[in-house]
Design a protein that fits this description.
There is one protein chain. This protein has helices at 2-18, 41-58, 78-90, 103-116, 144-154, 171-186, 205-214, 228-237, 282-294, 302-320, 327-334; strands spanning 28-34, 61-62, 65-73, 96-99, 120-122, 137-139, 162-168, 190-197, 218-222, 246-250, 270-273, 338-341, 344-348, 355-367, 370-382. It is an alpha/beta fold. The strands form two sheets. Strands 7, 8, 9, 10, 11, 12, 13, 14 and 15 form a nine-stranded mixed beta sheet that branches. The chain is globular, with a radius of gyration of 21 Å. It binds P-hydroxybenzoic acid.
């Protein structure tokens, strides 16, 4: 308890130090907490690359303040996230914490953001309730209900009447399962079974065998970014597609970071999501091109876009507060921002601090010898369906 009191005192002191005392010449520090190693490392790699690209394109001095990124690897484990967040706030005196590759990481840092009045920008994690964990949280990624509801509206209109759901057994998976099922059922479809796989080291084989036996029209999948190719591989190895079972899901499963290596078996897979590297806009073409040039041809995925836009939100807040804003003032300047992202127009809802964005239906197709999620329909300005208020 005593240790906890000391930590709280240090966090409050950090908050007070930030109040109006920022000297124009001090660096503006962004603590980026990301999984740089472990199973979620692709998320860290993508977001770091995007944040660095944003800074290279927009300069590293904003409103007279030099912007400094401090990157910490939390291996997507909440204990490490908490420790890094505390260290960044108390010792490095960062102005903003950002990143958060998985939901448990974002939730672990939330109380520290509240106590120290430090804005926390969620660039990756996507469980609906995260933004309710602290009034200092702003999200630049997406929510699973946004993508799942859009897909559940498309599916029954396209000949799919029965579905088995298969999700990672934690926040975003449970959101995907619930919001897909509720909407699909409302639309007259039937979820015949809901399967959950462990978040860590999942073995999909026994679950896929079960799906084969149940023989639904389609298998709906949510797995976190980085796990999609394992699902795809086993789905094809078991000949599920040949057995007439369609693979559908949120776009996490046909993640642009891995899609091109999944092979032609991925062709035709329909998903709903907020970003495809193939998105047809001048801004996105420029983004994909610059991202590739700066990173040995790497293709940006939806995590990269969350990182790029999160940096934009922070830069705009720093500008709006003329380089002098404390945590509360920066937070106020983040709320209500509207701008064009490589994914399309986005909006930070001032009430919920969550992102409002277009959700696209996409199908995996080959273009110039490469696999892409090709967008074929759009639902405009989707708020998080998971918000109760
Ligand atoms: C999450 O943990 O919130 C999460 C991680 C990866 C995703 C989506 C959600 O692709």
């Amino acid at each position: 308890m005593q240790k906890r009191t000391l930590i709280q005192a240090a966090l409050v002191a950090a908050a007070l130090a930030g109040t109006g005392a920022a000297m124009a010449q001090d660096a503006f520090k962004i603590g980026l907490i990301l999984p740089m190693t472990g199973p979620q490392a692709s998320t860290g790699r993508q977001i770091e690359a995007a944040a660095r690209l944003y800074m290279a394109q927009n300069g590293d001095t904003v409103a007279g303040r030099k912007v400094q990124l401090i990157i910490k690897d939390d291996v997507a484990t909440p204990d490490q996230t908490r420790r890094h967040a505390q260290d960044l706030i108390v010792n490095d005196k960062v102005n903003v914490i950002a990143g958060f590759g998985v939901t448990p990481a974002a939730l672990a840092a939330a109380p520290l953001a509240t106590q120290s009045k430090t804005p926390l920008v969620v660039m990756a994690a996507a469980t609906s309730s995260i933004t309710e964990a602290s009034p200092y949280i702003v999200r630049s990624s997406f929510t699973l209900p946004q993508a799942s509801v859009a897909l559940a509206d498309w599916v029954p209109k396209n000949g799919i009447k029965t579905v088995v759901t298969l999700v990672s057994d934690y926040g975003p998976g449970l959101d995907a399962e619930k919001f897909f099922k509720d909407r699909f059922t409302f639309n007259g479809g039937k979820v015949v079974e809901s399967l959950r796989v462990p978040m860590r080291n999942p073995d999909f084989a026994p679950f896929l065998q079960k799906v084969r036996d149940l023989k639904p029209d389609a298998l709906f999948v949510f797995v976190p970014s980085g796990a999609g190719s394992a699902v795809m591989k086993q789905f094809l190895e078991r000949g599920m597609d040949k057995a007439g079972i369609k693979l559908i899901g949120t776009g996490d499963v046909t993640d642009d970071d891995q899609l091109n290596d999944m092979g032609d078996g991925a062709l035709g897979v329909v998903t709903a999501h907020h970003y495809s590297a193939d998105h047809n806009s001048a801004m996105n073409k420029k983004f994909v091109d610059a991202f590739g040039k700066a990173n040995k041809g790497m293709r940006p995925n939806f995590m990269a876009v969350g990182g790029y836009d999160g940096m934009h939100i922070i830069y705009q807040a720093l500008k709006a507060t003329q380089g002098k804003g404390n945590g509360d003032q920066l937070l106020a300047a983040m709320k209500g921002q509207i701008f064009e992202s490589p994914r399309g127009k986005i909006f930070i809802d001032a009430q919920t601090r969550d992102i409002v964005q277009d959700i696209y239906l996409r199908k995996v197709e080959k273009k110039n010898g490469q696999l892409y999620n090709v967008e074929f329909d759009v639902i405009k300005d989707v708020k998080d369906p998971g918000k109760t208020k």
